[in-house]
Amino acid sequence: MKFHLLGEKTKVEIDILGREYPSSSDYWDGNWVVSNVKIEIPGYYVDFNANLRTDEIKDFVNDLKLMDRHLSGKAILKNLDSFIHIEGKMDKLGHIEWSGETCYPAGIGAVLTFEFVSNQSYLKDLIKDLEDITYVYPVIGKP
Question: Angle of helix 54-70 relative to helix 123-136, nearest 10 degrees?
């Protein structure tokens, strides 16, 4: 299950491959998902596996829904392990200014920072893809 952030000559693709601990019902262990991160920007191509959390994905889609509803605001995908951090801010013209940072291996590896712009026409598809992911991989338990 994938979601994409798209801009001119830029593509961020995150493919959720499955739960890291599928038999766990604990909030802290059960919400880790293994994913594959691919980023294509002029001059760079990034491809690595990362552990994300379902609560991080849920928070991101909720931010995006508010952005879509109000046509303003920001949405953040922040990863506990620091594999990836992406922030989008919508301007008054409906453009989303994205900034991102990846680190692989997490915490000690190479860092790539990047920025790109997209328009709100991609937002509904992004939200739908993320809702599908959170349906298949809901947040388990309580913190």
Answer: 150
